[in-house]
Design a protein that fits this description.
This protein is mainly beta. It has 2 domains: about 70 residues, no CATH class; about 90 residues, predicted glycosyltransferase like domains (Thrombin, subunit H, Beta Barrel), CATH 2.40.10. Helices cover about 15% and strands about 40% of the residues. A 6-stranded antiparallel β-barrel has the order 5-6-7-10-9-8. Strands 1-2-3-4 form a 4-stranded antiparallel β-sheet, with no helix packed on it. The chain is globular.
């Protein structure tokens, strides 16, 4: 009976990564989290890329809190029109996680990679030093080890898609500093 089942499965299913199979067969997940996203209510959350579980994320402590359970939709209630809340004019600066990690970066879809060093990472993105200045709004790819506080995994290398938000020109005996938002990232296995 088991061999008959295996013949019915497509080759793609048979070649799935072991982690994904562990989730399906054993009900356990090692969790690899997406970059924190903002929900409609303004709170942040992360989604596991393997099992799709959602967890609230607190940027102040840079930690996941409780799992998000979605209630079943009530079809009897009428939806209200979207109203805008007044936001404060001053927002405190996002907490920075100071790092000294190597990274590689390049303009999207180009062949030349540059070596740099991450200074810090935060809700707004990553600040790094590197030999090549890039123009503001340039789309960039960055490869580095995402901190466990964000990814949920130790030693997790990622490739990030981002956008250069600003740069500080190089001072004598120093490299330029670039600040890039992180739009999304994928784990490199």
């Amino acid at each position: 009976m088991m061999t008959m089942r295996l013949r019915l499965l497509s080759p793609e299913v048979l070649n799935m990564p072991q982690k994904f199979m562990d989730v399906l067969m054993l009900g356990r997940c090692s969790h690899e989290f997406s970059w924190p996203r903002r929900a409609a209510d303004g709170d942040y959350y992360q989604v596991c890329l393997l099992c799709a579980a959602e967890y609230k994320y607190d940027w102040t402590s840079m930690r996941r809190t409780e799992r998000v359970e979605h209630p079943k939709p009530d079809t009897t209630t009428v939806r209200r029109a979207h109203t805008r809340e007044k936001r404060p004019s001053w927002v405190p600066r996002a907490r920075r996680l100071k790092l000294d990690l190597p990274l590689r970066y390049r303009v999207n879809k180009t062949s030349t990679w540059y070596e740099g060093t991450i200074e810090n990472i935060s809700q707004s993105g990553v600040l790094f030093n590197g030999p090549q200045e890039l123009p503001v709004n340039a789309l960039v790819e960055m490869v580095f080890e995402m901190p466990e506080e964000i990814s949920g995994q130790k030693n997790s290398n990622v490739v990030c898609q981002g956008r250069v938000m600003r740069f500080k020109e190089a001072q004598p005996d120093a490299t330029p500093a670039l600040a890039a938002s992180i739009v999304d990232y994928k784990f490199i296995h």
